[in-house]
Structure formats: C-alpha cells, structure tokens
Specification:
InterPro entries: Diguanylate_Cyclase, GGDEF_dom, Nucleotide_cyclase, PAS, PAS-like_dom_sf, Rev_trsase/Diguanyl_cyclase. This protein is an alpha+beta fold and about 625 residues long. The strands form four sheets. A six-stranded antiparallel beta sheet has the order 7-6-11-10-9-8.
Length: about 625
C-alpha cells in the first residue's frame, strides 16, 4: 500500500511539472504571436493609407493630363489652316506645312500626347502629325458621337487596346465660324503617358499601378512586363473587401498578371471613364513583420530549450525514483505472475526439461490434452517429474530444435493421435534448462477440412457425371475431345470416336414406361464400361445418345470394341420385357485439320445412315485411308 501511494505521488509530481512547462511555453508563444499580430495590423494600416494616397494622387494627375490634352485639341479649332482643310478637303503644300508646325507646337505642350489627327465628318483622317499614318479604323467608334445633336458634348474619351499603339483616345468637335460641325480633332495618349510621374512614386519592390477602363480592361501597367499584353488579363476580383465609397475601393486581391496577393486602392478618375488601381504587395509591407518574427523565434526557442532541459532533468529524477520503488515489487511478483500465466492460459502449456525430457509443470488444458493426472486442490503444480510421451515433440527436444506455430499430428502415449498447432521455445527457469511447449488442439478443424475436401470431390464428380448412367456428361466429353484433338495435332497420334443411340427407344418408353427406359439406359452404360478400356471416355450426350472417345486407338480397333459391346448388349435380358435392345452408331477417327464439331458431325452422319439402313448397325468411316 505504501509503495502504491509513493508511486501515485511521483506520477502526480511529474504531471504537474509537464503542465507547468507547457503552460509557460504557450504563454510566451502567445505573447510573441500577439506582438506579431499587432505589428501586422499596423503595417497593413500604413499600407492602406499609402495605397489610398497614391491612388488619389495618380487619379488627380491622370484627370489633369486628360483635361490638358483636351484643351490642346480644342485649340485646334482656332487654327485657320485646319478650318480651310475641313471645308475644302485639301491644302496647298505651304499651308499643310504651317498646319504641321502648329500642331507639333501643341504636342510639345503635352509630351505624353503622341499625335494629333484632323478627321472630317465622314470619320476619315485627312491630316496627321504622323505623316506615315493613313485612315485609322478606330475613328469609327467616334462616328456616332460626332453626329449627335448635343452642343454640350464637345469632348469624347475612349480607349484603344493595342500592344504597340494603344492608349487613351481623345476627340474634340470642330466648328466653323457659323457654328456648323465640320469635323473633329483626335489625339492619342500612349501607354507611357505619365511614366515619369509613376517612377517617382514608392509602391514597393513588388507593387504595381494599373489604369483601367470602364470594362475593367487594363489600359496601362507599371512596371511593364516584357512580351505580355496587359489587355489579355482578366479584371481584378476582390478577395477581401476592406472599405468602399462612391469613388474609391480598398480590397485585397491576387494580381491578374503574376497572381501575387496585393492590397489594392481603386479610385475613379474624375468624370473620365478610367480608374487608377495602386497595388502594394503583401510581400513588401509584411517584410518588417517577418523580420521581427525571425528575431523573436530564436529568443522563444532559447526559452523553450531551457524549459525543456529543466523539465527533462526533473522528470529523469522522478523516473529514477519511481523505478527504484517498482523494482522490488516486480521482483517479488514476477515468479507468482509467471505461474499464474501458465495456469490461466487457454492454451495447453508444458515446461519440460530438454535434457531428461520430463515434464516440470503442466497447466490444466495440458493435463486434459495429454491425459495427465488432474491437479489436486492446494497443489502448486510444480515438480511433476513425469516422462514426456509425445511425438514428434520428444524428437524436437532431443535434436535441440525449436518450432513456431507448427501444424503437426501428435502421437500420445496410448498411440492415439490428434492434430495441434505446436510451438517449442527454449528458456531459462530458476537457473535450470527448460523448454516451453504450447499446444492448441485443431482436431475438430482438421475433421471439418477432411469433410469439406470429400464434399468438394463429390461436387466435382457430379459436375462432369450424368446422374442416371454414371457416365461422363456432354460438357466433359466435349472438353476431353478438344484436348485429345490438340494432342493429336501436336504429336501425330491416332484417336477415334463412336456416336450411337438406342433403336426405337421412344416406342420402348411409350410401351413399357420411363422406369423401364431408365433401366435400359443403365444397362447400356454398364455394357459400355465392361467392353471399353479404363482410358476410354464413355459419355451420355443426349437422351438415348452416347459417345465413346478412344485415345491412341485406330479406327478398326475402335470398330471392334463397338461390335463387342453390341454383342454384349444383345445377350442382356430385362425382366418383363420380351424384345432385345439394339443400337445404331457410327465410328470415325481423327484427321489433320479436324475440330470437335467436324468429328462429331461425321459420326452423326454415319449414325443417320445406320438408321436408314435398318438399325442395329455400326458403320465405320470409309474415307479413312
């Protein structure tokens, strides 16, 4: 009792030490994670403010740039040469040169405006600062806008998507002195319209800036990706919406270009159909948190290592103390426990001296199995000192052989036998040589296996045997015939078959009854067995039709056997039946190229000819050489 109390106290102390160490590590780890979470929230807020500020700045600059470009296009209405060109359709070379110089001067006012074109009311380009440019198909989308009767709508903005010459298209209506519409001036703001502005902004190493149109298609992207068309990517799909108002959205989403998760601020560009999206990569603004985590991790691991070392030392001391307490108890209980195991095991167990081959101890199942004297009340079971009369276990002990779950037939002292699974293992007991013999009686199982084997044999025989005549059935005969033909083809041996049936068997059945007909079939089967060899295959293949397969037999020898069988059946008499039983048949042999069907067909043809010739005839195949 005292030992049990001390053991429980040691176990309780060890459990408290483990829980204390785990709680210390969890609290310290929780503090580290809390600090990292607060830091992450702070840098995320700073990134949100940065993205909002940059998107507002770029939106204002984009709106200002488009407005400035629109004013430049509107000033084209004040150029006399442009008025004359739209009214007359052409200009003298000197006037065209003046117009070119004036438009180029306007382009210098806005470097991001790449070209200016003068378009007539038929939407055809009649003059361009780019002399190599002809009529452009993209003007067709301005046609309906150009002819709208809306004096307030003098400016139009659209997007031209092209990897080389794409950008923002601007258009401004041109009127003559009387206010009549005579054409429009168009300009193209290319993809690099405020590259210098963007290059001075800080969006991080992995950030991006997008300009989107009304369909959320990308007009421009910074930084540029070589060999990739920005318009080939799908619109941004918000993953987590953080904030939203009439002109601005803040959300987290994967980039359509590289799949990297970024924090995007998307803002409307004034009254123009464009949006500016500034994306700051989480990889950039969380770098500070990761650096902080990598600094905090070694500190926590150091604390954890010290805690675990201290816990290990304390648990080792407790374990040694507990092992000392349990050692004496195990020594005291081991002998009694081993004896109880032997006595209470459901297997038959023997302790045998391998040198003298005498039984030292036997439990109750072993005494019953070997018909030893039963154990008396109060008897310890030790020191039986009886000779072991059990083969082949005696021989194993003599040869020093060990066995593991070996299935053998045991022979007892009275020469009776039984089947058992036996294991033999050497061990040391009280300093003396000893062997443990374990036996499990499987005699009942062996009996069931034998009965099952006999049943399987009966089923196999029934599957190939005709139940009335006890001859082989049609299925087995076909299989044997196919195998015999294969053998003949391989080795060039001879083989013959005979097919016959009983004459007037239907009339016989109608006259004497089916029982008499069954007796005739049995008599024919018996006569067939008496006149053929053991190697011949006799089969009933129909109601009164039979087949005989003669392996390694010539045609004339098979014919002699059938004549002998005919003679034996002629001398067979049946009670209460006056007439004799006869049969008709045909005999043929194997020929190269034969199949089971062709051989049976020839024999059936001979049988049919025998019937036509008066019955009680056995015809032999005359075509055989």
């Amino acid at each position: 009792m005292e030992l049990t109390h001390r053991s429980k106290h040691v176990t309780r102390s060890a459990r408290h030490a483990k829980w204390g160490a785990a709680l210390l590590l969890l609290v310290s780890l929780g503090l580290v994670l809390l600090d990292l979470a607060i830091s992450y929230h702070q840098v995320e807020n700073e990134a949100s403010h940065q993205a909002n500020g940059l998107s507002q700045l770029l939106s204002e600059r984009l709106s200002s740039g488009i407005h400035e470009a629109g004013l430049i296009l509107q000033s084209s209405n004040q150029i006399p040469e442009a008025q004359k060109l739209l009214r007359n359709g052409n200009l003298p070379p000197e006037a065209q040169q003046n117009l070119q110089q004036k438009l180029l001067q306007q382009l210098q006012l806005a470097p991001y405006l790449s070209q200016i074109e003068i378009v007539d009311t038929a939407c055809q380009t009649i003059f361009s600062t780019n002399r190599g440019a002809g009529a452009r198909l993209h003007h067709n989308e301005f046609c309906r806008w150009l002819h709208r009767v809306d004096p307030q709508e003098s400016k139009y903005t659209a997007v031209m998507h092209s990897p080389t010459a794409g950008g923002i298209m601007l258009a401004n209506k041109l009127h003559d002195a009387d206010g009549n519409l005579i054409g429009m001036a168009t300009g193209l703001i290319n993809h690099n319209f405020f590259q210098d502005e963007v290059s001075r902004l800080t969006v991080g190493e992995h950030g991006e800036i997008l300009v989107l149109d009304q369909r959320q298609l990308t007009v421009a992207r910074w930084p540029k990706v070589a060999g990739i068309d920005p318009q080939s990517y799908r619109p941004l799909q918000p993953h987590v919406m953080l904030s939203r108002d009439a002109n601005q959205m803040l959300f987290s989403a994967p980039s359509s270009f590289d799949g990297s998760m970024r924090l995007y601020s998307v803002r409307q560009t004034g009254n123009y159909p464009f949006q500016v999206a500034v994306g700051i990569s989480r990889q950039d603004f969380t770098r500070y948190v990761w650096d902080k985590a990598w600094l905090a991790l070694p500190g926590w691991l150091f604390i954890a290592a010290l805690t675990l070392l201290a816990l290990r030392k304390h648990l080792s001391n407790l374990k040694q103390h507990q092992q000392l307490l349990r050692g004496n108890e195990r020594i005291r209980e081991s002998e009694e426990q081993a004896r109880r195991i032997l006595d209470t095991a459901p297997l038959a167990l023997l302790l045998v001296n391998p040198q003298t081959r005498r039984i030292q101890h036997a439990n109750a199942p072993a005494r019953e199995l070997l018909r030893l004297p039963p154990q008396l009340p109060g008897e310890s079971g030790h020191g039986l000192n009886l000779p072991l009369k059990l083969q082949p276990v005696e021989q194993w002990l003599q040869d020093g052989e060990e066995a593991l779950q070996r299935e053998v037939e045991l022979e007892l002292e009275d020469k009776s036998t039984l089947w058992a699974i036996v294991s033999l293992q050497r061990l040391s007991r009280d300093g003396e040589p000893s062997s443990l013999v374990a036996m499990y009686d499987i005699s009942g199982r062996k009996l069931l296996e034998q009965q099952l084997h006999e049943s399987n044999l009966q089923l196999a025989e029934m599957a190939i045997t005709d139940p009335l005549s006890r001859l082989y059935n049609r299925r087995h005969a076909d299989m044997v015939l196919r195998d015999e033909i294969s053998r003949c083809e391989r080795y060039g041996q001879t083989m013959a078959i005979a097919v016959f049936d009983i004459d007037y068997f239907k009339k016989f059945n109608d006259l004497y009854g089916h029982q008499a007909g069954d007796d005739v079939l049995v008599a024919v089967a018996n006569a067939l067995r008496d006149t053929t060899r053991n190697t011949d295959i006799n089969a009933r293949i129909g109601g009164e039709e039979f087949m005989v397969i003669f392996p390694y037999t010539r045609l004339r020898d098979a014919h002699k056997v059938m004549l002998r069988m005919q003679m034996a059946l002629t001398h067979t008499t049946f009670p209460f039946v006056e007439q004799r039983i006869t049969f008709s048949g045909g005999v043929t042999d194997w020929r190269p190229g034969d199949t089971p069907a062709t051989m049976v067909s020839r024999a059936d043809k001979l049988l049919y000819e025998a019937k036509l010739s008066g019955r009680n005839i056995i015809l032999c195949d005359q075509d055989t050489p």
